[in-house]
Amino acid sequence: MKNIKLSPNFEPAVSHLVEQLRGIRTGRASTGLVEGVTVDYYGTQTRLKDIASITTPGAQLIQIEPWDKNAVSNVVKAIEISSLGLNPTVAGSIIRLNLPQLTEERRKELVKVVGKYVEEAKIAVRNVREKLLREIKNQLDAKELSEDEHRGEKETIQKEVNDALQVIDEEGKEKENELLTV
Asked: How many domains is the chain built from?
């Protein structure tokens, strides 16, 4: 995540955003697109990356090979009902997903989705900030912190927030550029 060292308080919000962005299709094959698909594996909802080998042998192709050959049909079914809009083809125990080129309209829709994810991450960061500010306010009221320590803590928290928001914006812009590059 860029060159900024994030506070442990804000790192989960940024990590979640990065995972969400990995799942957005950019027109070229990426294992991140299908890793999070959940498969009914012997009655348990399991992430695809935990039960199969996922590779990208070509720019427009994702190849999935379940370790358990009996899971192939469940994997196909999970991909078909996911929101990916992909049609898997099966050759023995190997599942192939051909990614068609994205239309301009679809690219613009995906940019809006990126914007939504970025805004959700910013809201998460602000919520953590509010929680931390309440905690140090309570410490000030309980005389556990002096006024100067309180002010210093507030400044530290705001710097950490600014760093997290900067990384969030950078991640979002990077994904938007990826989507709009034909």
From this structure: 2
